[in-house]
UniProtKB/TrEMBL annotation:
<dbReference type="InterPro" id="IPR023796">
    <property type="entry name" value="Serpin_dom"/>
</dbReference>
<dbReference type="InterPro" id="IPR042178">
    <property type="entry name" value="Serpin_sf_1"/>
</dbReference>
<comment type="similarity">
    <text>Belongs to the serpin family.</text>
</comment>
<dbReference type="InterPro" id="IPR042185">
    <property type="entry name" value="Serpin_sf_2"/>
</dbReference>
<feature type="signal peptide">
    <location>
        <begin position="1"/>
        <end position="22"/>
    </location>
</feature>
<dbReference type="InterPro" id="IPR000215">
    <property type="entry name" value="Serpin_fam"/>
</dbReference>
<dbReference type="GO" id="GO:0005615">
    <property type="term" value="C:extracellular space"/>
</dbReference>
<dbReference type="InterPro" id="IPR036186">
    <property type="entry name" value="Serpin_sf"/>
</dbReference>
<keyword id="KW-0732">Signal</keyword>
<dbReference type="GO" id="GO:0004867">
    <property type="term" value="F:serine-type endopeptidase inhibitor activity"/>
</dbReference>
<feature type="domain" description="Serpin">
    <location>
        <begin position="52"/>
        <end position="411"/>
    </location>
</feature>
<protein>
    <recommendedName>
        <fullName>Serpin domain-containing protein</fullName>
    </recommendedName>
</protein>
<dbReference type="Pfam" id="PF00079">
    <property type="entry name" value="Serpin"/>
</dbReference>
Length: 415
């Protein structure tokens, strides 16, 4: 296996930019494929349902929350390529992955959504455009895949082929007994334009492989909130108490939809196909409930261009989430990833997301990290216990010639 792994891989380059660095290895002769008729719609339906289920399971009604279904699904999609036993079917059920697998869908989705090749550039601090004199910038969307392995670990060739062909991911060899955490954190920092600087709070010392995903978005509103804001406005929290905040305001024509107990407005980002849907329940209603696939489909079908006055607060917050327990509650009990490497099992799963929304637009980033340990294979189930007379033969294996044969009847006897 070690020789096959070495033959399959070829050193491509050192990790670009930042320290510490890792040796990057790519699958030799395996290029990024262009998928033909990938099951994108089914995969997106699954991600939508998963995002609603996870937010419902983890978000307190009184707390801010942000997560990226795309980032989490993308990371677990990569892991699906090496899932063994019951773990694969459980992943399919929890994430709504297609029967033929999610890999070609994620390949196609990133091709459609991503706007840049490589890490996103960091925004210029405290620079605001003049809404009257300058055009809004085009959106920036980045999706990055990372695979970090212990130096010398034998990873299954088929797993590496899938990651190279569908996710464009090579292997970064690191030392999990040394600076691996620093390498992974530097990667997360680089792929999120500095928004997220740490992947794991602390890596389990048994970790020998990490699958990582990063999603980054920056977009300016097609129409900025330039109307005078409403100062000292009351914002009523879920428990009925109120806080004072500033509401951004603008009047214009927007996509608008409404249904039983909810309203929705579509705020488009400039120069692209991206938009934010602001989903507003009636007072006392559940915001997370509006992310249910049926409601999202109703919003999509119901949006009509309508004169609307929009007033909403700025927001800036982050979420850090350990994924294993909530995903267990959603039905993912298996942790067998022996299709990645012998004895591989998922030891840690983390997700971090952050978002900033103001008068000019939105910046958001997310990372997902899956840390795998290698199980001690333990004692073999089959045992040969030579505690009674036995025979032996010394043979030349190519010809099976018996050089010596004999039996041991009493190992304590000398003659």
């Amino acid at each position: 296996m070690r020789r096959l792994f070495t033959a399959l891989l070829a050193v491509a380059a050192l990790a670009a930019c930042g320290t510490p660095q890792a040796r990057v290895i790519t699958a030799k002769g395996v290029g990024r494929e262009t998928p033909v008729e990938p099951p994108v719609e089914e995969t997106v339906r699954g991600l939508t349902a998963f995002g609603h289920a996870l937010l419902t399971a983890t978000a307190s009604p009184g707390a801010n929350a942000v997560l990226s279904p795309l980032s989490i699904g993308h990371a677990y999609g990569m892991a699906r390529a090496g899932a063994g036993g019951r773990t694969g079917p459980e992943l399919d059920e929890v994430f709504g992955f297609p029967v033929q697998g999610p890999h070609t869908s994620f390949n196609a989705l990133t091709r459609q959504i991503v706007t840049l090749d490589g890490p996103p550039p960091a925004p210029t601090p405290d620079v605001r455009r003049d809404a009257q004199e300058s055009e809004p910038a085009a959106p920036i969307v980045g999706v990055a895949s990372g695979l970090f392995t212990q130096e010398g670990l034998s990873v299954r060739p088929e797993f590496l082929r899938t990651l190279a062909a569908q996710y464009g991911a090579g292997v970064q060899q690191v030392d999990f007994t040394g600076d691996a955490a620093g390498v992974i954190d530097a990667w997360a920092d680089r792929q999120t334009a500095g928004r997220i600087k740490k992947m794991f709070d602390q890596l389990d010392p048994r970790t020998r492989l990490v699958i990582a995903n990063a999603v980054y978005f920056r977009g300016e509103w097609a129409t900025a909130f330039t109307d005078p804001p409403e100062e000292n406005a009351a914002f009523t929290r879920a428990d009925g108490t109120a806080v004072r905040t500033t509401l951004m305001r603008q009047v214009g024509t927007f996509g608008y939809a409404s249904g039983a107990g909810w309203q929705a407005v579509e705020l488009r980002y400039a120069k692209g196909d991206l938009a934010m849907w602001v989903l507003l329940p009636q007072a006392g209603g559940s915001p997370a409930g509006l992310l249910a696939p049926a409601v999202m489909a109703e919003v999509a079908a119901g949006l009509r261009e309508t004169p609307v006055t929009v007033a909403m607060p700025r927001w800036d917050f982050s979420t850090a989430l350990s994924l294993q327990e909530p995903l267990r509650e959603l039905g993912l009990d298996g942790s067998d990833y022996s299709g990645i490497a012998d004895g591989a099992f998922l030891g840690q799963a983390t997700h971090r997301a952050t978002i900033t929304v103001d008068e000019w637009g939105t910046e958001a980033a997310a990372v997902t990290g899956l840390a795998f340990a290698i199980a001690d294979m333990g004692s073999p189930e089959t045992e040969i216990r030579a505690d009674h007379p036995f025979a032996f033969a010394i043979v030349h294996r190519p010809t099976l010639t018996p050089l010596f044969v004999g039996q041991v009847a009493d190992p304590t006897a000398e003659d």
